[in-house]
């Protein structure tokens, strides 16, 4: 048995990927379907697809950029805190940095080691820190390897110099070596740090990076910190501690001793790495989305509210979630809206009667016509608009197409104003956008006292643009909610109850075999049993359940199906050979019943039998609530 | 002030004792001496001073806290002895032994014997005093360590000219009780009283404080030229007394803690110093009284305070991020708490729509009052379905449509367990706020996995307050 096999055998669980039959695709490689009741031309479809692709990749390009920036921003910030800030305090204390919301993957860059200073990064994971002794040993070992490799680099350089230089240098080297031997013992404890200067002739800057601090035993950590404290008394040692915390500070604070906290507090910094606290990056992504859709697309209030709600519900992966929602909404928009093709005004050439007919039924357009009527506008003008005589409607539409969306523009303006004029950075662009939409911008801005005086400059009246509903991202059908945040159990339940809805219909397909037809007429056994399951009480007597199931099976449908199968399957035939029809049905139903019960167990509908009582299974629900 | 050692107040007896126990003649010196006293009672300080004023003693300091377990301790004994002797008598050609060879006490003994034998060439008999600073801080301390060390000296032959003597500095007196039968000479360092603490701190810290950069800057920026050094000293002394008076109930007579507090508060204190109030302690106290209210030895609150000041108006908005949990997470956690601490059989009466929460006996049916408040017990385990059921019952769903309209029929009346709920639950689990009954090889999909909540009442109360959920209501009338 090789190693891989052995490792495989030790696993507690396995993943099995069932071979997926590839669905026969249309010869068209575009997953979009023809809209306008199937009247959309292929070219328009392709344009829609291309346009969607352009926007999507553009948006993602920007998002990647922003996320990459987060990383670099963060690194430089950490570097700045750890190495560039010269603190005037000469007291013995650690330089402490708490990285909040960190997933411990942040790498820490070290400054290059110089003639008299060596910086060493020591990373400690919870697994490496079972107790103080191991922590100390590991960290000293890491320090030692770092020091040795540094030493080697140096001596290599020195050798190069030596070849050019004279003997004096060599002499010095000999002396150095003698020196090393004096303190040649390396025991992995703090004496190593203490003698470091003597041995390597350098000051050290130790950076301890505690990964996943929450999983390290706190009393161990506490003791280790106290231990490190005693290394501080050496003049040549600087110690920085970096804690990667993914819970919160108060958790740390509660678990360490007060005296340790005080020790850490003397020189400490906090940095939120999670990139979802504060709105900086979320704002940037949202802004780039607004830019991507060229200021043409609107976002409906409902949709923005949806984004806000969902982001509030998810604290750790905010940015990913935001990107996902925006992505999905963009996709559905292009998928379902035939007018999406006009996002690119160049495509206006394909505008024809099929589109125009739909245009006239737009609520905003109708509202506009009504307004015209009330103002007693000349009737032929209105008629021209409605019937597209002289291409009036077309021109009218194109006119609106090239207009910028005032809301997007103003959102950007306000954001810029807040940042540049008032130095406010803790605003939430998405929330601001929502308030713009419902005209409550002033209420939102009043939060900042500075803004109160500037309200006049930022004032904005939301206006209805004609045809805006054609270019609005919305969540009106709950599609996003369903697709992004599916309800597991109720979805399964619904589908089991209405299996006809979710299985592909067979009516048109003449080539379906007889077998499949029979199978379909019987229906999935799972959903048959599920109907019974719904009516049962929390504890199900298996035998009663089975009897009920047997009664509910439609024998007249089942029998021809079995006959059909028997002809193909000899083994099945053998088993059922000596039996009469009723016996056959009994046998088959029992087999099906058992199979289904097990499947229910795996689907999480019932709990398996407990050891005491095999007659009953329990529903996986709580007291029917 | 002690006559024997300068700069050591209130420790005459102890200093006298040290003088009498430690002699130049090895014959007259005890092999093992214990100095016992709580932290910050001056053990290390006095010993340092002692050797400073009596340089003829050869002393070696060991810090067991850095050595973690007994083996490095043994190695350290050999290494430091060897180093010290080599440093003192560079003329003597002695063989170097690798301290890492010391694997057990016996090896230490043999190696030490050979080291000491080589250095016996020195003329005079003298002591080599090894001080174990904080022996009880050794991580892997067990009862035998001190025994080993004590008896160790008896094994060393006494004809050598260099004699080892051990001095142990120990904080915890209970450790010494174990060795009561060994008749160790013990010098006890009692805690200082408030007055003594005050005087010591004033003595040690005043110069520090007025020489600190911050204070100098303050004087320069405020252009304070109406004071002389004595008056500066008075400011610092006054500050120290204020600190002690304010925080004494919290710190006790712990000099370390007080020192820390002085460090923390001094910068804040001098920010308020102006030309006018520097000579007026009362005015200065008035303007700085805030800093004497809290100890501020927590990490997070600095920012929060600023936030509250900056945007008090949108406080309501900020709460929903307290504890960095989302609303769903918070409700899940509350539900988990209820599941863990309320018995399942009352669920239906508490949470079903029919009986609203009533106080008193009606809501729970007829039963005896519980003898112990369940909150004081360990959390009991529950199954996930129950958690979701309770969660559904307590989670407030905002109705967007008016009740009675057709569209309100389309809205879900209750929150259903969707992706978000599961995500949040997973988050809570990885934050260790909820835990499973077994910790290894958890199969989260199995219905047999039992869960429990992992937060105490204080936190859950805080969380439930942040979402304006009166958790106390569910626990009222459970106990007296």
UniProtKB/TrEMBL annotation, chain A:
Compartments where located: Nucleus
Molecular function as annotated in GO: chromatin binding; DNA replication origin binding
Any one of the GO CC terms: nuclear origin of replication recognition complex
Domain Origin recognition complex subunit 3 N-terminal: 5-342
GO biological process: DNA replication initiation; pre-replicative complex assembly involved in nuclear cell cycle DNA replication; silent mating-type cassette heterochromatin formation
Coarse class of the protein's main subcellular location: nucleus
The keyword DNA-binding is annotated on this UniProt entry: yes
Domain of life: Eukaryota
Domain Origin recognition complex subunit 3 winged helix C-terminal: 490-622
Classification via InterPro entries: ORC3, ORC3_N, ORC_WH_C
Keyword DNA-binding listed: yes
Protein keywords: DNA replication, DNA-binding, Nucleus
Entry similarity comment: Belongs to the ORC3 family.
Protein name, per record: Uncharacterized protein
TrEMBL record, chain B:
Molecular function GO terms recorded: ATP binding; DNA replication origin binding
Key words, A-Z: ATP-binding, DNA replication, Nucleotide-binding, Nucleus
Domain of life: Eukaryota
GO CC term, one of those recorded: nuclear origin of replication recognition complex
Pfam families, sorted: AAA_16, ORC5_C, ORC5_lid
Gene Ontology terms describing biological process: DNA replication initiation; pre-replicative complex assembly involved in nuclear cell cycle DNA replication; silent mating-type cassette heterochromatin formation
Name recorded for this polypeptide: Uncharacterized protein
Broad class of the protein's primary localization: nucleus
Gene3D superfamilies: P-loop containing nucleotide triphosphate hydrolases
UniProt cross-references to SUPFAM superfamilies, sorted A to Z: P-loop containing nucleoside triphosphate hydrolases (SSF52540)
InterPro entries for this protein: AAA_16, ORC5, ORC5_C, ORC5_lid, P-loop_NTPase
Domain annotation Orc1-like AAA ATPase: ranges: 8-153
Localization in the cell: Nucleus
Occurrences of domain Origin recognition complex subunit 5 C-terminal (ranges): 325-475
Family: Belongs to the ORC5 family.
């Amino acid at each position: 048995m090789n190693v891989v096999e052995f490792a495989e055998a030790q696993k507690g669980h396995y993943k099995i990927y069932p071979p997926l039959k590839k669905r026969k695709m249309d010869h068209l490689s575009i997953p979009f379907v023809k809209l306008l009741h199937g009247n959309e031309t292929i070219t328009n479809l392709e344009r829609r697809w291309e346009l969607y692709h352009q926007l999507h990749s553009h948006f993602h390009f920007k998002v990647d950029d922003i996320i990459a920036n987060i990383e670099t921003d963060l690194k430089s910030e950490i570097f700045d805190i750890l190495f560039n800030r010269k603190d005037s305090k000469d007291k013995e204390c650690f330089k402490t940095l708490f990285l909040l919301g960190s997933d411990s993957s942040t790498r820490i860059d070290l400054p290059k080691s110089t003639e008299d200073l060596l910086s060493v990064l020591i990373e400690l994971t919870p697994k490496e820190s079972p107790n103080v002794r191991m922590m100390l040993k590991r960290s000293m070992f890491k320090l030692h390897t770092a020091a040795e490799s540094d030493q080697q680099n140096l001596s290599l350089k020195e050798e190069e110099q030596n070849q050019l230089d004279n003997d004096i240098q060599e002499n010095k080297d000999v002396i150095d070596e003698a020196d090393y031997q004096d303190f040649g013992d390396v025991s992995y404890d703090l004496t190593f740090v203490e003698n470091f200067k003597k041995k390597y002739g350098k000051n050290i800057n130790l950076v301890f990076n505690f990964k996943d601090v929450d999983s390290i035993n706190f009393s161990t950590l506490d003791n280790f910190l106290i231990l490190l404290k005693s290394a501080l008394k050496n003049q040549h040692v600087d110690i920085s501690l970096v804690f990667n915390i993914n819970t919160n500070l108060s958790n740390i604070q509660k678990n360490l001793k007060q005296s340790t906290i005080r020790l850490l507090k003397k020189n400490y910094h906090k940095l939120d790495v999670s990139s979802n606290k504060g709105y900086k990056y979320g704002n940037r992504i949202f802004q780039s989305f607004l830019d991507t859709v060229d200021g043409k697309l609107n976002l409906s209030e409902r949709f923005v509210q949806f984004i806000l709600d969902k982001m509030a519900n998810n604290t750790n992966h905010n940015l990913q979630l935001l990107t996902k929602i925006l992505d999905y909404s963009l996709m559905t928009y292009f998928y379902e809206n035939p007018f999406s093709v006009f996002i690119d005004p160049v495509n206006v050439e394909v505008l024809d009667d099929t589109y125009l007919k739909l245009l006239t039924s737009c609520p905003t357009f109708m509202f506009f016509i009504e307004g015209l009527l009330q103002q007693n506008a000349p009737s032929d003008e209105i008629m021209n608009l409605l019937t597209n005589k002289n291409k009036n409607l077309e021109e009218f539409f194109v006119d609106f197409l090239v207009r910028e969306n005032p809301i997007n523009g103003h959102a950007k303006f306000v954001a810029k104003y807040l940042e540049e004029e008032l130095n406010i950075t803790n605003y939430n662009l998405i929330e601001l956008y929502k308030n713009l939409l419902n005209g409550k911008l002033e209420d939102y801005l009043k939060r900042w006292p500075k803004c109160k005086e500037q309200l006049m400059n930022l004032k904005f009246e939301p206006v209805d643009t004609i045809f805006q509903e054609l270019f609005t991202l919305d969540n009106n059908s709950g599609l996003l909610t369903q697709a992004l945040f599916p309800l597991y159990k109720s979805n399964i339940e619904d589908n089991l109850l209405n299996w006809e809805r979710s299985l592909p219909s067979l009516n048109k397909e003449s080539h379906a075999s007889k077998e499949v037809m029979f199978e379909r007429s019987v229906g999935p056994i799972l959903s048959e049993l599920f109907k019974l399951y719904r009516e049962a009480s929390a504890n199900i007597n298996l035998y009663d359940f089975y009897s009920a199931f047997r009664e509910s099976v439609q024998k007249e449908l089942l029998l021809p199906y079995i006959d059909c199968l028997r002809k193909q399957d000899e083994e099945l035939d053998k088993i059922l050979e000596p039996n009469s029809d009723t016996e056959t049905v009994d046998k088959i139903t029992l087999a099906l019943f058992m199979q289904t019960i097990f499947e229910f167990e795996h689907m999480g509908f019932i709990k398996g039998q407990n050891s005491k009582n095999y007659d009953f299974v329990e529903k996986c629900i709580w007291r029917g609530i | 002030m002690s006559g024997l050692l300068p700069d050591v107040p209130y420790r005459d007896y102890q200093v006298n004792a040290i003088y009498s126990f430690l002699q130049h003649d090895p014959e007259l010196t005890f092999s093992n001496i214990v100095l016992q006293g709580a932290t910050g009672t001056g053990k290390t300080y006095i010993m340092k001073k002692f050797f400073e004023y009596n340089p003829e003693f050869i002393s070696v300091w060991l810090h067991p806290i850095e050595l973690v377990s007994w083996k490095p301790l043994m190695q350290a004994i050999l290494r430091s002895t060897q180093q010290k002797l080599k440093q003192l008598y560079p003329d003597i050609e002695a063989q170097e032994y690798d301290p890492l060879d010391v694997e057990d006490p016996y090896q230490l003994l043999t190696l030490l014997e050979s080291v000491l034998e080589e250095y016996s060439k020195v003329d005079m008999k003298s002591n080599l005093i090894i001080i174990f600073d904080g022996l009880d801080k050794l991580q892997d301390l067990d009862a035998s360590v001190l025994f080993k060390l004590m008896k160790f000296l008896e094994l060393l032959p006494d004809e050598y000219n260099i004699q080892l003597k051990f001095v142990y500095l120990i904080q915890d007196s209970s450790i010494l009780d174990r060795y009561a039968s060994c008749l160790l000479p013990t010098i006890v360092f009692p805690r200082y009283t408030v007055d003594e603490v005050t005087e010591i701190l004033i003595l040690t810290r005043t110069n520090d404080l007025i020489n600190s950069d911050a204070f100098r800057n303050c004087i320069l920026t405020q252009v304070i030229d109406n004071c002389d050094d004595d008056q500066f000293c008075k400011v610092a002394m006054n500050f120290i007394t204020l600190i002690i008076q304010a925080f004494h109930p919290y710190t006790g007579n712990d000099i370390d803690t007080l020192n820390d507090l002085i460090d923390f508060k001094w910068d804040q204190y001098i920010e308020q110093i102006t030309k006018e109030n520097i000579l007026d302690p009362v005015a200065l106290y008035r303007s700085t009284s805030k800093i004497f209210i809290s100890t501020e030895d927590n990490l997070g609150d600095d920012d929060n305070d600023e936030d509250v000041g900056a945007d008090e108006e949108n406080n309501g908005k900020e709460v929903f991020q307290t504890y960095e949990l989302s609303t769903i997470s918070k409700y899940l956690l509350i539900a988990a708490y209820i599941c863990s601490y309320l018995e399942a059989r009352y669920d239906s009466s508490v949470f079903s729509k029919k009986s609203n929460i009533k106080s008193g006996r009606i809501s729970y049916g007829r039963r005896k009052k519980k003898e112990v408040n369940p909150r004081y017990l360990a959390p009991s385990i529950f199954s996930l379905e129950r958690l979701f059921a309770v969660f559904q019952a307590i989670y407030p769903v905002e109705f967007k449509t008016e009740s009675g309209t057709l569209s309100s029929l389309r809205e879900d009346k209750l929150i259903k367990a969707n992706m978000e709920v599961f995500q949040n639950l997973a988050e809570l689990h990885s934050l260790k706020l909820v835990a499973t009954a077994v910790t290894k090889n958890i199969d989260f999909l199995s219905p047999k996995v039992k869960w429990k909540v992992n937060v105490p009442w204080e936190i859950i109360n805080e969380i439930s307050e942040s979402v304006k959920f009166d958790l106390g209501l569910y626990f009222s009338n459970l106990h007296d």
